Amino acid sequence: MSENRILNDSNDTVETERVTFNQWGKEFAQATKCNPNSIQNGLNEVYSDFLTKQQLDENAIKNKIDKLNEDIEKLKQNSEERRANNEHLSIENQRLNDLIDEKKNEILELENEILEITGGRRKQDKSKLNLYATFSIISLIGTLLAYMATFGSAILGLEEGDQFIRGAVFSDLVEEGIGILVFAIFISIIPIACGYFYGKFKRDKKIIASIATLGIVLIVDLIIGYKLAETIYNRGYEDGLYSQPWQFDFFVTDAHFWIVLLINFAMYMTFSLLSNAYFEEEDRLSPNSQVEQTKNKISLLKEKMEEFRSSIVENDKQVKSNLSEIERNKISIDKKEIDIEDYKNGRLPLNIVYLKQLIAEFLKGYQSYVNLMIENTNRAEEIVKKVLENAENWFVKKESDGWSKSVEIKTDKNFFGINLDNHEVN
User: Fold this and answer.
1) What is the per-residue DSSP string for 264-280?
2) DSSP code of 4?
3) pLDDT in tens, 98-131
4) Which residue of 9, 139, 245, 304 sits 20 to 30 Å from the alpha carbon of 157, by its own alpha carbon?
5) What is the rounded CA–CA span in Å between residue 364 and residue 96?
6) pLDDT at 118
7) Using alpha carbons only, what angle is made at residue 297 by residues 292 and 301, rounded to the nearest 5 degrees?
């Protein structure tokens, strides 16, 4: 079938032409005195006018053919692109299906792990836990000794020959009495307790509380560092190494203050990180925690599988859309190739749909005049019915005489869109 064409690009021109044909129908009815047997002559005039307006010169025909060939190439290119896209989508879907199978296997393995965990059949690798425990204890002892040594030296002072830490600080603390010893131990336990709670708050996502523990330890370190720096300076002053006694702001440039601050805080952080790592590993190895972690992994895998499935569904929709478009392109190409053949053979592809609209306007004008001029309703209906029958016969004959299009001819009383019951155009 040849492709339908609009004779005029301007909607205003098309509408004006239809009005003209409507008026033409009224004038023809008047001229023939509503004789239904002469309607075919009027339709021949409509058809002749229609053909005259579609006549094309040689250049116009060549331009039409070139434009149709250009359209065909674009349609073919579009079809090839969509075929290539379908091949890509097919490969992508296969990849996604393979990934889904992989995730299914992973989920099956994880579900087996849960059974092993809950059944107590899974062997636990506690090497990390034991390693963290060992170094946590070592760092705890080191932290305790570092704080007791620096704090004890700060409150007991230095003896002859001491440079930084009192030589017998631990035994001297014992000899000083239980009160001093307990106080030194208490001060030393503060950073250890803060180290423990720092890790706990950090695991519980309590950021402000964890920062607060750092602040407490920093205060303790500042006090110990300041007091020890003052003690060491005063010892040097007594020995004549300094010309003036200790002043409050001396700690800013005193190396001993910063060394104490650095060593004690480093010991605190080491213990805090090691103990936190120990408790995290312990939590990880607990059955409930392992089951929860495994379930979370399964949940993530299932979400990933759903994403893959959604992608496959979208790809399938695109494939179907591409196939539909390719089929539409094929139909359009076939139509355009027939049009090209018609142009080459000197046959004008006719816009029969538009011709039918013009004829309908012509008949509507004819009917309008009949209804207006003939007062006898039955007589008017009889004339209109006969006119439409003759028009249908004329149209069928034109079709059989060689129109290049295959047109569906209506044989019911709504032919050309005119309802014979009320004489109105649908």
Assistant:
1) HHHHHHHHHHHHHHHHH
2) P
3) 999 998 898 888 878 777 666 555 556 677 778 8
4) 139
5) 62
6) 65
7) 145
**Which residues have CB under 8 Å from 46's CB, separation 6+?**
21, 24, 358, 359, 362
Task: Say what the alpha-carbon torsion angle 208, 212, 218, 224 is, to the nearest 10 degrees.
Answer: 180
Q: 88: pLDDT confidence band, cut at 50, 70 and 90? A: very high
CB neighbours (10 Å) of residue 208? 7
For residue 246, pLDDT beyond 90: no
Nearest to 5 by CA among 240, 335, 253: 335
User: Cα separations (Å) of 348 from 50, 66, 257, 351?
Assistant: 12, 15, 105, 9
* Run of H or E including 190: helix 178-203
- Give the model confidence (pLDDT) of 326-385 as tens digits: 999 999 999 888 888 877 776 666 777 788 888 898 999 999 999 888 888 888 889 989
Tokens of 29: 């009815």
What is the number of other CB atoms lying within 10 angstroms of the CB of residue 59?
Answer: 8
Please report, for residues 38, 270, 405, the alpha-carbon distance to residue 142 in angstroms, rounded to integers and kept in the order given: 122, 10, 101
- Integer distance in angstroms from the first to the last C-alpha of the chain? 27
> Which pLDDT band holds residue 56 (cuts at 50, 70, 90)?
low
- What residue type is assigned to position 268 of the chain? Y
- Report CA-CA distances (Å) from 219 to 35, 108, 212, 278: 117, 53, 11, 26
Q: Which of 408, 415, 403, 340 shows the shortest CA–CA distance to 51?
A: 403
For the stretch 319-325, contacts whose Cβ atoms lie closer than 8 Å and that sit 24 or more positions apart, written own/partner, are 319/86, 319/89, 319/90, 322/82, 322/83, 322/85, 322/86, 323/82, 323/86, 325/78, 325/79, 325/82
Amino acid at 110: L
DSSP 409: P
CA distance 280 to 228: 36
What's the CA angle centered on 371, arms 365 and 374, to 5 degrees? 125
CA distances from residue 272 to 222, 328, 369, 388 in whole angstroms, order as listed: 19, 71, 104, 101
Across 243-258, average pLDDT: 84
